[in-house]
């Protein structure tokens, strides 16, 4: 993903090309070129492209990285008030808390959520266990509740389900050398 500085640099170069196109369009009208109206269209398109790149250069796209968070995948998102992520079954409680904070920062602060202001959004973390061949068991390990429209990060209410961690496989002890 491009950074905001790269979008601003791109908008400068595209802006210069827009001015070149505008000069060519003006020259086309003065000299009665047959493609003068096409040059006006190209200039207009380049102006819109320049404006869009400049706007993208003003908005930061990066989310802060939470130390200790592990990779997660979104498996369900209704776009309004419910999100489910999947985490590896080897996750620990501190890693889950960091991952829930990371997921909340990445997914719940979006202005595009369809929930009205003041509604609670629920983000749940789960993993899949296979107690026997051919059987899959989803295990919900924790969740984050957030009131949409709350201005601070303190609005996140993180819950870790300690009883569900007892179902996870224990890590194998490394052999002593």
Task: Describe it.
- With 177 residues, the protein is α+β, with helices and mostly antiparallel strands.
- The protein folds into 2 domains: 4-58; 73-165, no CATH class.
- 39% of the residues lie in helices and 23% in strands.
- Strands 1-2-3-4-5 form a 5-stranded mixed β-sheet.
- Helix 1 runs antiparallel to helix 2 (36-58).
- The relative contact order is 0.12.
- This is DUF2518 family protein.
- The chain crosses the membrane at residues 12-32, 39-61.
- Keywords: Membrane, Transmembrane, Transmembrane helix.
- It comes from Neosynechococcus sphagnicola sy1.
- InterPro entries: Uncharacterised_Ycf51 (IPR019664).
User: What is the spatial order of strands in the main beta sheet?
Assistant: 1-2-3-4-5
**Distinct helical segment count:** 4
Q: Mean of residue pLDDT?
A: 86
SS-derived structural category: alpha+beta
Transmembrane segments: 12-32, 39-61
Keywords: Membrane, Transmembrane, Transmembrane helix
Organism: Neosynechococcus sphagnicola sy1
Protein name: DUF2518 family protein
């Amino acid at each position: 993903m491009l950074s905001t500085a790269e979008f601003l640099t791109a908008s400068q170069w595209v802006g210069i090309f827009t001015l070149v196109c505008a000069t060519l369009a003006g020259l086309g009208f003065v000299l009665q070129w047959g493609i003068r109206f096409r040059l006006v269209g190209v200039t207009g398109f380049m102006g819109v492209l320049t404006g869009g790149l400049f706007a993208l250069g003003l908005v930061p796209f990066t989310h802060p990285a939470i130390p200790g968070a592990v990779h997660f995948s979104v498996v369900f998102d209704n776009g309004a008030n419910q999100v489910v992520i999947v985490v590896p079954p080897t996750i620990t409680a501190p890693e889950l808390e960091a991952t829930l904070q990371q997921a909340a920062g990445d997914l719940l602060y979006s202005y595009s959520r369809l929930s009205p202001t003041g509604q609670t959004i629920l983000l749940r973390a789960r993993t899949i266990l296979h107690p026997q061949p051919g059987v899959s068991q989803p295990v919900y390990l924790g969740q984050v509740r957030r009131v949409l429209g709350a201005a601070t990060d303190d609005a996140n209410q993180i819950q870790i389900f300690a009883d569900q961690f007892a179902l996870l496989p224990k890590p194998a002890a490394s052999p002593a050398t």
